[in-house]
Design brief:
CATH class of the largest domain: Alpha Beta
Largest sheet: 7 strands, mixed
Shape: globular
Oligomer: single chain
Bound molecules: ligand L263DTV3
CATH topology of the largest domain: Rossmann fold
Number of strands: 11
Pfam families: Trehalose_PPase
Distance between the termini: 22 Å
Catalytic activity: alpha,alpha-trehalose 6-phosphate + H2O = alpha,alpha-trehalose + phosphate
Structural class: alpha/beta
Function: Removes the phosphate from trehalose 6-phosphate to produce free trehalose.
Number of domains: 2
Keywords: Hydrolase, Magnesium, Metal-binding
CATH superfamily of the largest domain: HAD superfamily/HAD-like
Family: Belongs to the trehalose phosphatase family.
Radius of gyration: 19 Å
Amino acid sequence: MTGNGVQPALEPELGSALRSFADHRTVLVALDFDGVMAPLVDRAEDACPLPENAHALASLTGLAGVHTALVSGRALESLTAVAAPPAATLLIGSHGAERRLGPDAPPLILTDTQQAALAAAERTLESLSATVPGSWVEHKPAGRVLHVRQVSDPAQARDVVGTAETALTTLAGEHPEITVGHGKAVLETSVVRADKGQGLELLRQTTGADAVLFAGDDVTDEAGFARLRPGVDVGIKVGQGPTAAPFRIAGPQALAGVLQAVAQWRA
Ligand SMILES: O=P(O)(O)OC[C@H]1O[C@H](O[C@H]2O[C@H](CO)[C@@H](O)[C@H](O)[C@H]2O)[C@H](O)[C@@H](O)[C@@H]1O
């Protein structure tokens, strides 16, 4: 939203793509959370969706033929705590490793090998984090995340991320389940191979959607954009940075305008 409380106008090409999208019989609106529904903040537990985004998501969720989903890198428990999504909104967490597609969603269960790999990755990240004030390690069912947003010296933040990446890559020689990925002021490791593209495909199959809208801000969202069908689905990059998404909006404050446009054309 702009300073005077008015949603910025949509770019004409995006407006026209949303109009065509809304004309499909069944649609899926899938949204990343951090940096899309909610502005990025220092502490992950303090993230909060912009009220206009939360309201627009709730409005869309109640419409006939419209499915909504959050597709997040967060653990499902953390996602539901900060996003407080509508009950009917489908959830993909841990970058695709966790799913809540109905009331009986099975919990993620790790094999003994995955648990051993996760414990080893955790020891590596915790010991590095202990040497860098301001850094901390987030625990998720399938992974661990080294956060450096609150490290005051950018060079120190870069160094610890680089050291951690090298250490985890070495550890992956012993524990091949370990994967490593970058995000915004984080280094993530997981012992379950999954990505948001797989999560989106699962949502598409589950909902039977004829068209999918996906909005994301981070490098991990590119796996989602890669699964979209040109001319049918709508991919929206939120904020700056290279992307395969054909459309872009400035930030979370511009998302409600997108959601409201779809809601208006579906009503
Ligand atoms: O896929 P997302 O919903 O965008 O989740 C990606 C990661 O989000 C969280 O970290 C990011 O947001 C934090 C709060 O704004 C910020 O402090 C951090 O620097 C960001 O990287 C979350 O903590 C991670 O687990 C998610 O993977």
